[in-house]
């Protein structure tokens, strides 16, 4: 199922505050989109509007090119899992999963045996084939999340809306459920929109990341594009550690304010004046003192060990220390407490928070 949101505006009830401020989003059938952004950005509000759980004052919402039908039509086509969407504790797992089918009017409800078969199929799919007779209290957190997903999938929805569905899980279970969800999405040909606070999760699972801030979409791109071409300093910072360096552009040269950083050439289109350079720790390079013999070495390096395929360091500048890392496999040997200069020429440039180079 495709989702098209056009110029959506939603006000806080009884107020002129815009919770969603002219939001447009196009999600083609089969896409896996992650909605990310700081707390209060409007992610849940947008998801609820798409689900039809909340109304909106302006704009259009189209599912498969049509305005939304009745609530019941929607309920069958859209599966939701919200973070605090608890299972019914007094029902077995099987009854929980069957709920959406059991409550259908008799004329539409599958036979008892068809419902039982569907429940078993979902239990098998969730890799908890024997859990049907258990009560939710007997399950682990990860198993409960799977049951919540199974319940959302029982009516055969075409669109899956997930609001922090793995929030309560420990990182290891979370990682395995994430991989499994991606495979499920592909296998069932679903369209999935996932709200998550976990940037790594978004990058790993989604084919598109939509970043929200103040009720607006600030960028909508593939994970690679978002990392390579963040349109604002906020997006750059939001997606991961991003040391920033103030300086000034003169004659197409960025001259950092702090000692210990090498000036670097910038594109001629970048106008002179104050500027902020930001880059990832692994994009910072170290220059040994003898390459710049005219200057005294201006910083010292502190090794912080290896992690995730990188060797991590902190470079001590006059007023602060800056994280940087190099791939573990590199031949480059940076000695503990070695000194040198930082080359930040791979930085993106921002002015007033907007990308300018
Ligand atoms: N019914 C409401 N009345 C007034 N304000 C509301 C209402 N619902 C949400 N808000 C406000 O709208 C803003 C967006 O909320 P929303 O829950 O969509 O953010 P979010 O991005 O999902 O945040 P989080 O990551 O914390 O879940 C918040 O400032 C919230 O306080």
Automatic annotation (TrEMBL):
The keyword Transport applies. The keyword Lipoprotein does not apply. It comes from Acetobacter cerevisiae. It comes from the Bacteria. Keywords: ATP-binding, Nucleotide-binding, Transport. Residues 3-239 form the ABC transporter domain. PANTHER family: SPERMIDINE/PUTRESCINE IMPORT ATP-BINDING PROTEIN POTA, SPERMIDINE_PUTRESCINE IMPORT ATP-BINDING PROTEIN POTA. GO terms for molecular function: ATP binding. This is ATP-binding cassette domain-containing protein. Pfam families: ABC_tran (PF00005). PROSITE patterns: ABC_TRANSPORTER_1 (PS00211), ABC_TRANSPORTER_2 (PS50893).
